[in-house]
Structure formats: structure tokens, C-alpha cells
Amino acid sequence: MGKAQAEPREHGGMPGPDQQVENFRHTRRARKTEIAEDYVELIADLIDSGGEARAADIARRLGVSHATVIKTVGRLQRDGLVVTKPYRAIFLTDEGRRIAEWSRRRHELVVRFLLAIGVSEQAAHADAEGIEHHVGAETLVAFERVVNAGRSAPEES
């Protein structure tokens, strides 16, 4: 079975109503998971680099208040992504680690893609923070093709 055909565009280049609804649903789903993905990815990075993830470190690195971190970590715990104990570090569950690793791989691919198309390293890292949450599987596969094509291209003299 081939790819689903896109709904024809209406006058003025707008997508048809059903396609537009699906586009907005995709964006809302991405926004809903964006914060959780950022937190578990950062928690994994902190654990991997320093052995623990503390609320104060998360707040400092995300530029949010300690209270915001505590509230968000509570939601992550409720969703089964982290485990916390009073006066201890924050730990990822297996599901939290899985999401963190997927988020990290996706982030790294977006950065590599942006670098491959000529974006500066600083801009690539900054822009990847937003882009990574809003690209679908098909787009990620295309990014991977571009990155891999760049690797196999002969060096210019």
C-alpha cells in the first residue's frame, strides 16, 4: 500500500479542512509532550554526566524556578517517567529512560541536519530545541537521508 494522498489544496493554497485539522492536531500533540521530553532528556544528561539529577540543577539549566521544576517533576512522576524521594535526586524509570534516549537521538539528528544544510553550530543547537518536538517520522527519515548523503559526498578540493 502506498503513501496516503494529501487532501487537495483549496484556493489560495490552503490545505483542505480535514488536512488542516490533522496538521493542528499534530502540533498540539507535540506541544503536549515537549516539556516532558525536555525534562527527561535533561535528567538523563545530568545523571549520565554527574551521577544525579537534582531539582536545583534542572531549574538552573532550563532557566525556570525551583517551584516550576517540582511541579513538573510531580507530573512526570504521576506519568511514570521519574521516581523521586524526599531530599534525594530524581531518577528515571525505564520508560523515562526510553523517552530520554529517543529524544536525545532525535535532537542529535536535527542538529546534524541543520549543520548539513549550512546552519551555524550555535544556531543549529538553539533551533533544534524547538524543531525536534515538531517533526514527524517521515521528516526525520528525510533528515537522516540528507545527513547520510553529506557524509558520503566527496570532499571539495
Give a description of the structure:
The protein is mostly helical. It has a single domain, classed as Winged helix-like DNA-binding domain superfamily/Winged helix DNA-binding domain (Arc Repressor Mutant, subunit A), CATH 1.10.10.10. It is built from 6 helices and 2 strands, in the order H-H-H-E-E-H-H-H. The protein has helices spanning 17-50, 55-62, 66-78, 94-116, 121-131, 137-152; strands at residues 82-84, 90-92. Helix 4 packs across helix 6. The longest helix has 34 residues, at 17-50.
Write the H/E string, N to C. HHHEEHHH
CATH homologous superfamily classification: Winged helix-like DNA-binding domain superfamily/Winged helix DNA-binding domain
Q: Between the first and last Cα atoms, what is the distance in angstroms?
A: 44 Å
What's the CATH architecture name? Orthogonal Bundle
Helix content: 55-70%
Instruction: Please work out how many helical segments DSSP would assign.
Output: 6
Look up the CATH topology.
Answer: Arc Repressor Mutant, subunit A
- Tell me the strand order in the biggest sheet: 1-2
**What fraction of the residues are assigned to beta strands by DSSP?**
under 5%
Low-confidence stretches: none
Mean pLDDT equals 85
What form results from the Cα inertia axes?
globular
Decide which structural class fits the backbone.
Answer: mainly alpha
Tell me the radius of gyration. 19 Å
Strands, total number: 2
Compose a concise summary of this entry.
This protein is mainly alpha-helical.
Distinctive features:
4% strand; two-stranded antiparallel ribbon; 6 helices; Arc Repressor Mutant, subunit A; 157 residues; mainly alpha
